[in-house]
Write a structure and sequence with these properties.
single chain, 15 strands, globular, Rossmann fold, five-stranded parallel β-sheet, six-stranded mixed β-sheet, alpha/beta, binds 6-O-phosphono-beta-D-fructofuranose
Length: 532
């Protein structure tokens, strides 16, 4: 177990950002990393030179390097489920073997990738038809990792989407599927049931609703259904032909699964070649993460800023703020990635965690968030570390002036958070507006920005499939490093189980088929309102 008190006492004595920059004229260069065309700037965090060395030594002591090697090699590092963790194999682009449990897994990965590409191209070209002809719409039914990744990526890569329209249904709320299917033609729609386990109640319920919607018009619904799952026998029970079942293994966690079959809807939307570029981007970041020394390693530093802010300084949340409208779903995607992975209070060995688990992750794209919640980020009493990201270029060259505004806003926010505005500066501004005396003082105080608020900024050239792959892999590895340092298993998610069990038990009560005996009085009250 790590000695967190040393980190916390360092963090308590942290120097203000202004001082750190004043002491080191090359701080921006020293505290930023470049990988390929990406730039990650962490100079606006209150990490000093000694803290930096200390954080790296913490990563070494935690065994990050050894654990990283174990992950890539296929060792069973998901110890509570006795599974390897090999989402990296799904985007592995070398032509070597990877032996897990005595067998090479890469052959199967490449074969499935090839089958996916064949099917995706058949759907895109119209050679795989529905009853009504060429497939015009694809509906991906899944939830959590079987929805958020593809939904996020299809939106992010909209400029590359030249296939059928792809839609996503996740919520068991009938409103979701109703609104999605409204206006679609069942005879030209392909339904993809995406579920690692093929038992998730929301997904299976929506899949049956879609099946009956299609069955009202289409004779052979099976021909217009595909399945993405590790549970191939269950897909057969559902009536989906094995030709359209794309399987994967239990060494891919749900929230890490968009690189393989769960990414089929992305592939149909952008084509196999662009999907390949997406995988290449992930692989590129894997190679960097695997090979670069810790102090020059982008995912490691993204993790160390997280550890510093969260476990060191005690900041309970972090905001992910992409200045990229097409990354609207990225904060939600990172929410699952980070909070399902590192929201644990028990260490790998079963003992209680002696430090806070991973933080609350949230966010919205800029500039929208600026007109909503940034007020609190700038002047609230709690410090919220911010993770900004923005592209050098947009996909709309004819609107380059709008992209300049976007970029200026992104940079302005991290600058404002850092430099703030003192009372004397605010007083000077308000005095110029004609205020005097007590009113000047009162008004000036409302216009003070404390500043010295930490942020990081990730710059990338353009949101291409390759770059999106790099960004996602960057964050995946950050979560991994933070998890290793916390000593937890980032790859299970037992915390979602209790609610599922209780929901299953409550459904018959709501239907009047079981009593509410044994339920607490609050739940009984809520049930009685709903039943009446
Ligand atoms: O309930 C949590 C979870 O298991 C996630 O980890 C997963 O991404 C999601 O549900 C969906 O699971 P499945 O792909 O098995 O339907």
């Amino acid at each position: 177990m790590m000695d967190w008190s040393k980190l916390q006492s360092r963090a308590e004595k942290r120097a203000p950002l202004a001082q750190l920059f004043a002491q080191n004229p090359t701080r921006a260069e020293d505290y930023s990393l470049r990988h390929g065309d990406m730039l990650f700037d962490f100079s606006k965090t209150q990490i000093g030179a000694e803290d930096r060395a200390f954080l790296v030594s913490m990563a070494v002591d935690a065994g990050v390097e050894a654990r990283r090697a174990e992950m890539f090699s296929g060792a069973k590092i998901n110890e509570t489920e006795n599974r390897a963790v090999l989402h990296t194999a799904l985007r592995n682009m070398d032509d070597g073997d990877l032996v897990v449990d005595g067998a090479d897994i890469m052959e199967g990965v490449r074969e499935t990738r090839g089958r996916m590409a064949e099917f995706a191209e058949a759907v895109r070209s119209g050679s795989h038809k529905g009853q009504g002809g060429k497939i015009t719409d694809v509906v991906n039914i899944g939830i959590g990792g079987s929805d958020l990744g593809p939904a996020m990526a299809v939106l992010a890569l909209a400029p590359y989407c030249d296939g059928p329209n792809v839609h996503f249904v996740s919520n068991v709320d009938g409103a979701d599927i109703t609104e999605t299917l409204r206006g679609l033609d069942p005879a030209t729609t392909l339904v993809i049931v995406a579920s690692k386990t093929f038992t998730t109640i929301e997904t299976m319920t929506n899949a049956r609703t879609a099946q009956s919607w299609m069955g009202r018009v289409v004779k052979d619904t099976g021909a217009q259904f595909a399945a993405l799952s590790t549970a191939e026998e269950k897909t057969a029970e559902f009536g989906i032909s094995s030709a359209r079942v794309f399987g994967f293994e239990d060494w891919v966690g749900g929230r890490y699964s968009l690189w393989g079959p769960i990414g089929l809807s992305i592939m149909i939307a952008i084509g196999a070649e662009n999907f390949n570029a997406f995988l290449q981007g992930g692989y590129d970041m894997d190679c960097h993460f695997r090979d670069a020394p810790l102090d020059e390693n982008m995912p490691v530093w993204l993790a160390l800023t997280g550890i510093w802010n969260s476990q060191g300084c005690g900041h309970a949340t972090r905001a992910v703020l992409p200045y990229d409208q097409r990354l609207t779903r990225l904060p939600a995607y990172f929410q699952q990635l980070e909070m399902e992975s590192n929201g644990k209070s028990v260490a790998m060995d079963g003992t209680a965690l002696d430090v806070n688990s991973g933080p609350v992750v949230w966010g919205e794209p800029g500039t929208n968030g600026q007109h909503a919640f940034y007020q609190l980020i700038h002047q609230g009493t709690r410090v919220i570390p911010c993770e900004f990201m923005v592209a050098r270029h947009g996909h709309e060259p004819e609107l380059a002036h709008q992209h300049e505004l976007l970029v200026a806003n992104c940079l302005a926010q991290s600058e404002a958070l850092m430099v703030g505005r003192t009372l004397s500066q605010a007083t000077e501004i308000m005095a110029k507006r004609g205020l005097t005396g007590a009113e000047l003082d009162r008004q000036a105080r409302h216009r003070v920005f404390p500043g010295d608020r930490p942020s990081t900024t990730l710059l990338y050239p353009l949101l291409t499939p390759f770059v999106l792959g790099q960004i996602i892999a960057l964050y995946e590895h950050r979560v991994f490093v933070e998890g290793v340092m916390l000593g937890i298993n980032s790859f299970d998610q037992w915390g979602v189980e209790l609610g599922k069990e209780l929901a299953n038990a409550l459904t018959p009560v709501l239907r009047g088929e079981a009593t509410d005996a044994g339920k607490d009085s609050s739940t009984r009250l809520l049930l009685s309102y709903l039943r009446d």
